[in-house]
Design goal:
By secondary structure, this protein is of the alpha/beta class. Helix content is 29%, strand content 27%.
Length: 343
């Protein structure tokens, strides 16, 4: 089969022939239909310091995908041949304290599909049946391909109650935009999203945010004034990983406010801990998805009319992967999807 592979340590990817995957007793083999390109894939492609520390070549990339189950292992009992599935990319140990307690998203031994083991940028992929989310209702394939990052957005957006609340989201990347759509759909009063890219802010406006703010020309305090707010934001979602974004968020939170932090900073930075204490703020780190409560919420949100299609801006055949990666890296896009159904 064809697969997009990090053949050796160093920059670049190659589309090469590799052996078809084989299902173990508890595994399923999936014919891949669509995949999404993630920031992690860009790191591995460019072979930055993080990739050099964490990835061992050769490796098939990719962890955002949807496909049809074509083979199941002898011990599989919850997935059938013909099922349409998206994949949960976090492979957990199943034996640690958190796994045994049903808190699999907190497994300290997590491995990543397409990071530590071969992934889904291929015509076929294999994964444990526990990691296959079966779509029981019809779903757009492009949307199903991005259930992994959609899950990050839902996990972040629903970490705290948002009904009737004023919500601030810093970082209008695809996950930030999806989180904004979820918060609005779930009943937030005002949803404000910030960025310095007008292209991304325009995408955010398409999903119905109340205010998309370019912080290169305006401040979050200006947003409060424009919306008639007087006490700060009730819920914050930090998606950018930028120090100034977290600092500005803390400064603009209401007393008793709650912050969910998904953005991963590239460096250490100072935080006004006095404000965190005196405002009695709650700061929660977010990593991945709650398995599988978040997945259930994702499916229900789509069934109840949440529209993610504005977030998907580009689609390429898998043979045009270089152009697809270049588009994703340029940043003037939402989610970029690869189609693996061409011959």
């Amino acid at each position: 089969m064809k697969a997009l592979v990090k053949v050796a340590a160093g920059p670049g990817l190659e589309l090469v022939d590799v052996p078809d995957p084989v299902a173990g007793p508890g595994d399923v083999v999936v014919k891949v239909l669509r995949t999404g390109i993630c920031g992690t894939d860009l790191h591995i492609d460019s072979w930055d310091e993080w990739a050099a520390r964490n990835v061992k070549a050769p490796l098939v990339l990719g962890h955002e995908f949807v496909g049809e189950v074509i083979e199941i292992g002898v011990a599989v009992n919850g997935v059938r041949v013909g099922d349409m599935v998206s994949g949960e990319g976090h492979l957990v140990c199943g034996t640690c304290r958190n796994c045994k307690a049903g808190r699999r998203h907190l497994c300290a031994n997590t491995r990543g599909l397409g990071v530590h083991v071969d992934g889904a940028f291929a015509q076929y992929a294999v994964l444990p049946q526990e990691n296959a989310w079966v779509h029981r209702n019809k779903v757009d394939l492009d949307v199903a391909a991005i259930f992994d990052p959609f899950g990050n957005a839902v996990h972040t957006a629903l970490s705290f109650p948002v009904i009737g609340e004023d919500v601030l989201i810093t970082g209008a990347g695809p996950i930030g935009i999806m989180a904004a759509a979820v918060a609005k759909h779930a009943g937030a009063r005002n949803v404000v999203i910030t960025d310095v890219s007008e292209h991304r802010l325009d995408l955010a406006r398409k999903v119905g945010v109340d205010l998309a703010l370019n912080v290169a020309t305006a401040t979050i305090a200006d947003a409060q004034a424009e919306l008639g707010m007087s006490e700060g934001f009730d819920v914050g979602m930090e998606m950018s990983g930028k120090p100034i974004a977290m600092q500005d968020m803390i400064a603009n939170m209401a007393h008793g406010g709650r912050i969910a932090m998904l953005g991963l900073p590239a460096e250490e930075f100072a935080v006004d801990w006095s404000s965190v204490v005196l405002k009695m703020l709650h700061v929660k780190g977010i990593y991945g998805r709650e398995m599988f409560e978040t997945w259930y919420s994702m499916s229900v949100l789509l069934q109840r009319g949440l529209d993610l299609t504005p977030v998907i801006t580009h689609k390429f055949g898998y043979r045009d992967h270089a152009q697809a990666f270049a588009t994703a890296r340029e940043g003037k896009c939402g989610k970029v999807v690869l189609d693996w159904t061409e011959a």
